[in-house]
Amino acid sequence: MSSIEVRLPDGRALEMPSGATVLDVARAIGPGLARAAVAGRIDGRLVDLRQPLDRDVDLEIVTLRDPEAGEVIRHSCEHVMADAVKRLFPEAQVDVGRTDHAEKFQYDFLVPRPFTPEDLERIEAEMRRIVKSKAPFERRQVGREEAIRLFRERGEELKVSRIEDIPEGEPITLFSHGDFVDLCRGPHVQRTDQIGAFKLLEVAGSYWRGDERNPMLQRIYGTAFAKREELDAHLRRIEEARRRDHRRLGPELDLFHLDPISPGSPFWHPKGVVVYNGLVDYMRELYGRYGYQEVIAPQIFDVELFKTSGHYEHFKEDMFLIETESGEMVLKPMNCPGHALLYRMRRRSYRELPLRLAEFSRLHRNERSGTLTGLTRVRSFAQDDAHIFCTEEQVEGELARFFEMVREVYGALGLDQVRVAVSTRGERFIGAAEDWDVAERRLVEACRDAGFETEIKPGEAAFYAPKVEIDVTDVLGRVWTLGTVQIDMAMPERFGLRYVDASGGESRPAMLHRAVLGSLERFIGIYLEHTLGDFPLWLAPVQAIVLPITERQVDYGRKVQEALRRAGIRASLDDRNEKLGFKIREAELARIPVMLVVGAQEEAEGTVAIRRRRGSAEGAGSLPVDALCSQLADEIGQRRF
User: Fold this and answer.
1) pTM, 2 dp
2) Quick check: is 336 catalytic?
3) In the chain, N or C: fewer CB atoms in 10 Å?
């Protein structure tokens, strides 16, 4: 029998027979490690303990003390949950679980009726019995026909359909514990008793395969950790996330609401429009300084435009297609092809470059209804979108200016936990591979020149260009991709874009796709949760509120409000016959940054008493009305967070 070399983190190397499993290696190291092992790590990727090894590898054994063990525990607990459901509801069909187990697990079930909270309690109790049974997880590889026969005999037609999706020649693995078996790649813990503390979180409806034309399934979410303390801390984070959920805060703060009459398209209220336009106006101010020109391209295009760009082939399912008497049309899903046409409308000279075109037009994408999530996944949206056409020599300078703008915008918004990643070419792409290689290298170098440590995400780029992703961490520790920039050589070639160079010949321009905030809808949803609606003064829908102590000061309060409005400050007046404490509490709940109390003394002196929501000492105390207006206008103009 041939042998392989297994290299360990401490520098040792073990000679093992080819086909030995990760668990075999753990046993060779020591019985204690073998008992504690839950997975292996090869080339930075988690693998199952029962994974056979057929080549020389660098291997690390993952135990319950390893942070990544949580992913394996949650994946295994996912199977235990499905087992419990099948025991309690034998008629249930099991669809698929979750691919990302970083925080939670889930399974979709086809059942005659929706699950109730009482059902979840019963399922949890059954899960505890399964965990205590110490049932071992077993892995086996089977042929396609055997897998189909097994699941068909069990009445799992959804699973049979999933098997038929697996490409010919790809291995099919099954994992089982006790009588439960499922189609799965793993990894899983050794035994069910290695699953620590767990909790089922909620039930939601989910269309099969995300298509509203298919049956509605019941999706159960849960989470699990090695220790009870970790679970309790996670549940506290979940509760805080619920408190910050933008779908609750939007209506509560009178910013927007969602209505099934127009799925994926929010109704923006006047206060929400102030925030929306505040972000747009801010970007427009920067565009003047950074040399952008704003354009507006049509909303509906002939489908041929997107065939030229490559989007029709790679993005058709996400487009709204319209049949007209003149043929198939497309409701605009992105701005870049239109900007390529604007560039191509006339002969260009190198002296015009870089040409920076920006647009805030509405975009529409046919997202499946099962994937719509408040503002963060919508069908109708706008982006702070721009495309830069430049010479090859200008690319580095434009990338540097992009990072400069990102830092300025995020600073004004108080977003200081920023990191970057570069997504590289996947299997499906357009354009020349050598162009991709050059573009990827330039993006990585630009990130590092801007002072960022840069993660590489292999194969995750869009089909037309590599991409820098600007990732921001919110107050709950969640990471969101906001800004992006791409170097695209394929689209200029497909549209035949050229410019007259300094020698009088023709050259192809580089095309940079860039956004700082990304989708405005998505950004506002994320930012609303990050700030809990406590926007910086410059962005707040109501920047100041005047609070008369008694009805006798209401007229003076109106004069203060009018002075603030003349100074360009969004001010309101609470003239209700309520106690001052009640008014202050209401203003706090409305997240109004500045509260201005006016009583008899303030009226006599022509002043206001200032109370800041954020508790800042700056500007506290009393000020004459004119001085207050000047101070607030200056602070708003500086766009400080």
Assistant:
1) 0.82
2) yes
3) N
Range of the domain at 557: 544-638
Residue 412 CA to residue 285 CA, distance in Å, equals 13
Whether the pLDDT of residue 382 is over 70: the answer is yes
Q: Is 387 a catalytic residue?
A: yes
Whether 447 sits among the annotated catalytic residues: the reply is no
Structural domain count of the chain? 4
* Domain co-membership, 305 together with 183: no
Q: Do 504 and 554 reside in the same domain of the chain?
A: no
CA-CA-CA-CA dihedral for 343, 348, 352, 355, to nearest 10: 20
CA–CA separation, 361 vs 333, rounded Å? Answer: 10
162 and 218 housed in the same domain: yes
Among candidate residues 365, 379, 591, 639, the one labeled active-site is 365
Exactly one of 74, 311, 387, 425 is catalytic; name it.
387
Do residues 386 and 482 share a domain?
Answer: yes
**Residue of 74, 218, 244, 336 marked active site:** 336
Same domain, 86 and 22: no
- Do 446 and 574 lie in one domain? The reply is no
Same domain, 348 and 389: yes
For residue 466, is pLDDT > 70?
yes
481-525 per-position pLDDT tens digit: 999 999 998 899 999 999 999 999 999 999 999 999 999 999 999
Which is catalytic among the residues 425, 467, 570, 639? 467
Q: At 542, is the secondary structure helix, strand, or coil?
A: coil
Q: Do residues 495 and 451 touch, judged by C-beta distance below 8 A?
A: no
Structural domain includes residue 241: no
pLDDT tens track for 88-129:
999 999 999 998 998 999 999 999 999 999 999 999 999 999
